[in-house]
Amino acid sequence: MNLPVTGEQLTFMALAGIAALMAVGVVVLNNPVRSAMCLVVNFFFLAFIYFTLNAQLLGISQILVYTGAIMVLFLFVVMLLNLGGKQIFKERRDFKPILGMVVGVSLFGMISSQLILPMLKVDQIRADNAYGAPQSIGKTLFTNYVWPFEIASVLLLVGIVGSILLAKRRV
Amino acid sequence: MGAPAQPVLQSVPLGWYLALGLFTFITGAVGVVVRRNPVVVFMCIELMLNSVNLTFLAFARYSPTVVPGMANDPQTWMTGQMMVIFVMAVAAAEVAVGLGIIMAIFRLRNEVDVDDMSALRG
Asked: Which of A99, A140, A158, B21 could be cross-linked to B78 through a Cys-Cys bond (beta carbons 3.0 to 4.6 Å apart)?
């Protein structure tokens, strides 16, 4: 069997195709709830692509953090603002979508021709197979990256307090 | 180091992952500029952050950071994944604060249209 694409490449194409289609759906669809649903599917398939990159822990945390926590936050805000009901935005029918598409396609062509075409030949995996395992990530996170980890925890605390202050009617 | 994981998708070149990341990033960037709904603008920012995460992971697998003098150190494989973890943490904080700001603006002005918001003070 000497197919031009292997089964693994077909698997990647299927995952990446659905992810890219859903990314377009987030931008194109008018209803924010539909955009949020597209984003959920996109995050899910991105998590599967993380699995194919042997980054298992990050794929699982992608599902937990993004599709679990962040998307629930988005849907809560859409629900509270009632943007999905009668108040769906009328996107203006002007030059902006067409101009955006032109800019996007030209940017994609420019960057991919300069940066991605040379990378197409790179297919040798250099990292260890267990580099995405929880053991190695935890070991690195708590030895070499312990100060950034602490700073991230402080940032999350500030974010929690700040969002409570913003959301309260009066302090 | 850990349980032996089977390598998967070995025949996919690095450029394919980068192409997907670039496509998602540009889709998000165009969406930020084109859309008027602030919640959808935030979703597009999330798309961009995720595409950067994908690029980090792809580079971490195919060409790890080469630190002079420690080429075979396992730590050099982990740099990309550490960046992804911190990007996720920062994205979570950013979404919480940003959606709080949208709620505050909605309460103040009863409408949220990105094109009409130009004042920094209420």
From this structure: A140
